[in-house]
Amino acid sequence: MTSTGLSRRRFTALVATTSISAALAGCTGSSGDAASEDPETAEATPAENTETSDSSDSDSGAAGGTQNFDGWFDDVENFDGVVDETGSDAVEVDVGVEANGGAFGFGPAAVRVSKGTTVTWTWNGKGGTHNVVHTDGEFESELVGDEGHTFEYTFESAGVYKYSCVPHETLGMKGAVVVE
After folding, report:
1. pLDDT tens for residues 143-172?
2. E-assigned strand segments in the chain
3. Residues annotated as binding site?
4. Which one-letter DSSP state was computed for residue 37?
5. What ranges does the record list as Low complexity composition bias (predicted)?
6. Domain 83-127+145-179 is in which class?
7. 26: which residues sit within 8 A by CB, 6+ positions away?
8. Are 124 and 99 in contact, with CB atoms under 8 Å apart?
9. Alpha-carbon gap, residue 159 to 169, rounded angstroms
10. Distance CA 135, CA 125 (A)
11. Residues making up the binding site for Cu cation
12. Among candidates 60, 161, 38, which has minimal Cα distance to 109?
């Protein structure tokens, strides 16, 4: 019976070590040349609009409707609803804010903007290397960890744009931009 308990302990330790190693794997890499990246300002095709409203028009009910992200934020510790920034020409989202057990969050996690708004993601240098990748490939930053690095995207079409930091998505490093 003692050997069975020891085997269980070793198995549990191995699983825990493997899980931690996998979660931290994205924190040590880097890719690309930061000087070669230009801000993205191309017109976007929105991801599936998941707002709950009685109309199929993606613009209706956007300002006051209840947002349904189909479970996208279920494992995101710092999601406190959608921050309304409609009417702003430019909006900033911090990359590497404290969330999900470390510096693995976007702040704010979800923001509502008007068509034509430029969103700038700004790295704070915490949590290792991060990127910003749209789930349907409309935009993608390089993987960097430098404080002060920025990535911009101008949203030209209404819809819900879900994105994540690919190395830390399983930890809950996810965000969304709702464009009306």
Report:
1. 999 999 999 999 999 999 999 999 999 999
2. 51-52, 66-67, 83-84, 90-99, 102-107, 110-113, 117-123, 133-134, 150-155, 159-164, 174-179
3. 130, 165, 168, 173
4. P
5. 42-61
6. mainly beta
7. 128, 129, 143, 165, 166, 167, 168
8. no
9. 21
10. 23
11. 130, 165, 168, 173
12. 161
User: Which among 93, 98, 68 has a CA at the least distance from the CA of 175?
Assistant: 93
**Tokens read off for 82:** 């959608």
Domain boundaries, the chain: 83-127+145-179
For 176, the 3-state DSSP assignment is strand
Q: Tell me the per-residue pLDDT of 100-147, one tens digit each, with 9 for 90 and over.
A: 999 999 999 999 999 999 999 999 999 999 999 999 999 999 999 999
One-letter amino acid identity for 23?
Answer: A
